[in-house]
Amino acid sequence: MNNMDENELKKIFEALRAAGWEPMLCDTPVPYYDNAVMCGVPADVGDVVEDEVRMMPKEFLSMQPEFMVKVQGDSMRDAGIVEGDVVKVVTQVQAADGDIVLAVVNGEVTVKTYCEDEEGQPWLVPQNADYSAFPLRGGDRVWIIGVVKQVVKQAPRIKYRSCIQLINKAKEQHPVVVSPMQVGRAIRGVAPMVEVARQWFAVYRAMVDASVVGEDDFEGFCTLVSDEVPRHGHLPVRDELQRMATLSFAKPVRRWDAENAPVRGKRFNDYLKIARYMEQLLREG
Known about the structure:
- It is built from seven helices and ten strands.
- The chain has about 280 residues and is of the alpha+beta class.
- Strand 6 and strand 7 form a beta hairpin.
- Helix 3 packs antiparallel against helix 7, helix 4 crosses helix 7 and helix 5 crosses helix 6.
- The longest helix is centred in the C-terminal third of the chain and has 20 residues.
């Protein structure tokens, strides 16, 4: 990928601002520590810098020293901090009730919420009901390293199957509107592929999926085909089509299953090929 020049970046920022976004340039280095700190049982943060720095927008930075560290565990889950997140910690800041802090307790480091009770007793409080809060007692060696000011999350990669499920749901809710002229053109286009009357079922199912004909409207479908290709040697017959609407063929084409269909092998592939070609013709208009 080529490096972006200043003018290209400026245009992108202008487009984002016009759309209501607030883009910021990551141009300021912040130390990043790879040793994970626990959102659960405290652990040693270590002092090894992994990448030396992570670049951040200067608008996000304060006057106090700060650094970034990766967390693990799930005790801060309900605060939106989960394993793998990176927190930006600002040091030399006095913690107040409700602040999320990076603290050292008896030599071990943890991320928790700081809070003082009615008697002034300070506590470190997890944000997950599976964990218990614990008091910071006088005998403990406690050091509040800093206050968490930002949580940086890695963008997840969404599973393909989840996307397809949502796409298919949207298609069912908002089917593509197909005009009668488009339907006629599609029927004429797919007709040469149909070699036996029962294969019209594949065309019928594709038209049902596109909301061109109603479910179980075999009679209406047969009339449409007869009007468009009256001289076709193998016109559809209502009873024959109805008998094909079984097993996976009773479902949308995308859910047809070669192992659970009324036809097998090459014949199944022929039906599927016809149905998909009809879908293509209906989309293309």
